[in-house]
Amino acid sequence: MKILISFALLISLSAFASAGIVQSSNVYSKDQIEALADSVDRIIPSFKEFKKSIQNSDSYSLFLLNSCYKEIVAYVRYMDVNKNWIDAGFWQLRSNKETYVGETRNTYYYPGAYSTDNKLGWGDIPVLFQGYELFVSEQQIQRTGWGDWIHEFTCDK
What we know:
This protein is an alpha+beta fold. The chain folds into two domains: 2-54, no CATH class; 60-153, Immunoglobulin-like (Sandwich). 25% of the residues lie in helices and 38% in strands. It has three helices and ten strands, in the order H-H-H-E-E-E-E-E-E-E-E-E-E. Strands 2, 3, 5, 6 and 9 form a five-stranded antiparallel β-sheet that branches. It has a three-stranded mixed β-sheet with strand order 4-1-10, with no helix packed on it. A two-stranded antiparallel ribbon has the order 7-8. A hairpin with a 5-residue loop joins strand 5 and strand 6. The radius of gyration is 19 Å and the shape is globular. 20% of the residues are buried.
């Protein structure tokens, strides 16, 4: 997520440089980048809300991580920040790869997965998910404040 902000700021810096607002390519301090973000807010009013959401200031950022040695297909049902239930997926994840799912304020979410060789499956609650009969498990985010939450799929369940 932080890479996305950096990329957005770099694009903004390039735009400012072409417009003559930024004189040359320099290394910027955190304070200078914050000042630049304030300038971007005048151009793109929703930038602060975007920045706030990806810095986890008022939500959990939900990720799925494949810690199994097998390749898996992962999916998850979760409530987004607008209180809508979302069926998100399907992500094909190689071993030790993760994917960003979305932002939530709800502590409950329902992930599921199966190995691409169909020998392993994660989940014990049958659901209809995007037209498929699949299995999920009820999980709860357990951390003291907003921020990243990584759900890990392991081979030993």
